[in-house]
Predict the structure.
Amino acid sequence: MTWAIGDIQGCYTQLRALLDAIEFNPKRDKLWLVGDLVNRGEESLETLEYLYSIRKSAVIVLGNHDLALIAAFAGIKKSNETLDPILKSPNAKKLIDWLRGQKFLHVDSELGYCMSHAGISPLFDLRLAKNYARRCEEMLQSKGYKLWLALMQGKNVTKLEKKMSEIDRERFLYASFVRMRYCFDDGTLDFAQKGTPNFSSSESATLKPWFLSPARKKIKEKIIFGHWAALGYFNNDDVCCLDSGCVWGNGMSAMRLDDHEERVVRLECQTNGDIDEEF
């Protein structure tokens, strides 16, 4: 079986309860993880150590919180009380090096799905998205990753332009894969709005969730993403958001990808781990 799970953010106890509920067996099954494995939750180290232990069975795309951990290890950003145990662990370098080797985009055309933490910019078709994700992966895995990552933490770049520096271009690509939520009709990103979309608002509104942009290029594979707890579990023919906001006391969701039914199992994190099979 192949399951995709939304943002964990250090909620290790809840993750293991959800894996028990779906009867996940790392010797038999595959686990897709949409990123934001760590930060905010009190069991970030335990989460990372467990996922490392099943790494041969896990497909991971990096989220902004995972990249913040790498940046803290590199001395680029300040750590915090939920990341400190990882950085102080004797296994810190091994875990960080492993994280640096993870993807920004995963595609499985046979299953009919692709996965990125925040989604895929409406300006990218799948070929472009693959190329741009590969560029980010190569830079993060390079010897000069610290400088590159520091530059990615700089100013917000909201759109692609013909005349722009290579660094600004890469800032846009980086943000598209790990920070994107809303964009304008022309595909320009907006980082100010983070709330719940009002799907009943006027069609003339120019600020929309990225997946509803009229500029969006057609991608055959369904896009699995997270990053948007305020959106929560959302599923239509084209995209599925699996960030149910467990770290905020809401839920953690798993969706089966290999049975054509998209069975969803949700753990209610606020109610002592009650399991709800939605589909």
